[in-house]
Amino acid sequence: MYCRIKWMKFWPIEKHLLSSSMDKTVRLWHLSNKSCLKIFSHSDYVTCIQFNPVDDRYFISGSLDAKVRIWSIPDRQVVDWTDLHEMVTAACYTPDGQGALVGSYKGSCHLYNTSENKLQQKSQINLQNKKKKSHHKKITGFQFAPGSSSEVLITSADSRIRVVDGVDLVHKFKGFRNATSPISASLTANGKYVVAASEDSHVYIWKNEADCRPNRNKGVTVTRSYEHFHCKDVSVAIPWPGMGDAWDMHDTFSGEQPELDNNADEVASANHPPTPVEENFVTEGSRSGSGYNNSPRHATIASATNSYFFDRISATWPEEKLLLAARNQSPRVSMDFSNGASQKMSAWGMVIVTAGLRGEIRTFQNFGLPLRI
């Protein structure tokens, strides 16, 4: 039997995993066990699932049969359900587990109260999607902003990523392409960047500068500027979960040394992938003067020869290549992060994990630096 897995979610405490599939089931797995622990049968393809973030005995599921269900894992049965009368394509809990967002194939977006594991509709969100064809309105993903229970990122098949605060649309990100795929955008752990795959075989990254948005009574703001890198047939792109404030270079470059425990570097190494560049680029004098080391928390580049630098780090993303002319510009490359550039260095070291239509899983790490032109 052909069985295509559509979604996978971790059960965070006990290292369990939920998968939903085109075989009309949700399956519960344990990471140390190859066999399925439990099966939850549906009447049509299951498009979305998520554990209750505060009570992982329950999960929510959405299906092409137009129904949203809350399941009890121990009892292996539905405890409540509702009919949307439209194919359900996205669903997620609010961070406190007391609510749920549900999106449909036709672009409708509903907010439910899920207290006591009952589904009670509270409101509907207007995403201002003016596309005529319903498949161009399809909701493909949700993600709440870190630390917020009201601000959520909504991805849809009209090649838009929208930020909704409560029930109000406040921001849009444009540039990627999503017309038919179940692409879902993700926020980094510090909330400063938005990452999404695209149907043009690229991964896109936008800055999420929430503080720069004008007052909401001035209308919806739009971000059109982005960075992107090529990744053939990419269908999923997510930031590495460990990417958070530990990568933020603001304290390092502002000249204020944060107080760290003795094991801070050890913790950072445990929570993040190994840095591909092990050599310390800081000159001996600057290292001894500042006290910085080559931990990811204190990565500083003072100067390096062209051949040394360009053989190890690409211009912006791992698959991009530098022009040969860049090697002949000057005998040394010197970079100064003492001014405004240091304020935006939190993307340094960011790791993005991708999956492709051919089943390939890849990782990319950002070691891009400005070049003198």
Automatic annotation (TrEMBL):
Membrane-crossing segments per the record: none
Domain of life from the UniProt record: Eukaryota
WD repeat copies, ranges: 17-39, 39-73
Record keywords, A-Z: Repeat, WD repeat
Protein name: WD repeat-containing protein 44
Lineage: Eukaryota, Viridiplantae, Streptophyta, Embryophyta, Tracheophyta
